[in-house]
Amino acid sequence: xxxxxxxxxxxxxxxxxxxxxxxxxxxxxxxxxxxxxxxxxxxxxxxxxxxxxxxxxxxxxxxxxxxxxxxxxxxxxxxxxxxxxxxxxxxxxxxxxxxxxxxxxxxxxxxxxxxxxxxxxxxxxxxxxxxxxxxxxxxxxxxxxxxxxxxxxxxxxxxxxxxxxxxxxxxxxxxxxxxxxxxxxxxxxxxxxxxxxxxxxxxxxxxxxxxxxxxxxxxxxxxxxxxxxxxxxxxxxxxxxxxxxxxxxxxxxxxxx
Length: 257
Known about the structure:
2 domains; Aminopeptidase; 27% helix; 6-stranded mixed beta sheet; alpha+beta; Nucleoside Triphosphate Pyrophosphohydrolase
C-alpha cells in the first residue's frame, strides 16, 4: 500500500512497516505530518537517505525520525549504494517533548569510543604491560568502556575480566585522543592510576588466555620496544602526569599547546 501527499510518498514495505520518501523542496511540516499519519496504521516508519544529501538528512531529523545507522550496498536504480536509515516507532516519545527531543539529538550527534586503562607500577617504576593475543604489540591493561558505563568502572571491569584482579581506579592521570587509524574511528583513552604493587600482583593474576598471552612489569626501554609508538608515548605521558611533571591531555601521546 502506498499513499501520496504533495511530494511525499509513504509505502508499506513489510507488515507494520512504512517507508517514506520526499522531494527536495518538500517542507518539513508536510513530511512530519505524513510520518505521524503513517504511525496510526504502522508500528514503524523509516526513510533511507543519501549520505551526501544533507538537506534530506535535516528533513528526516526534524520530522522526528531518529538516525539508526548506515545500510551499505542498497540497490538503487540497479547500483549498490549506501543509505542512512532513519526511523520512528510508535513507542518513541514525540520530539516535541523534552525526553523525545533529547533522544532525537542523541541519535545523530557524534559518539566517541572510550577506552579505560590502568597505569600499574612497581617500586622500580616499571610499568605493567599485557601481551595481547589479537595484535603484535603490548599494551596497558584495560579495554573499551561499555555503553552507559563510567570509564572508571569500565577499566576495573576489564581488568577483573581479563586478569581477575579487583582494582579500583585511582586518580585520572591522562586523557589521550587517538585519531582515526587503520579502520578504527577516533577514540579517547583515559588512563587511571592503578597503584604501585610488587611482583606478587602478577602471581595473583588469572589470565583470560583468549586475550592475554602474558603480563610483565617493563622498563620504559622495554615499553618502547614492545608497544606501538603511540602507546609508548601515552605510557610516558601518564608517568609524567603521575609524577606531577606532565599535563593530563595528549593527542596520540603527544602534548598539545
